[in-house]
Amino acid sequence: MKLRSDLILRTIGSDHLIVDPSQDMVDLSTVYTLNSSAAWLWEELKGKEFNTDTIVELLVENYEVSKEQAQADAAILLEDFQKQGLLEE
Question: Measuring CA to CA, which of 11, 78, 79, 82 is 20 to 30 A from 88?
Answer without folding.
Answer: 11
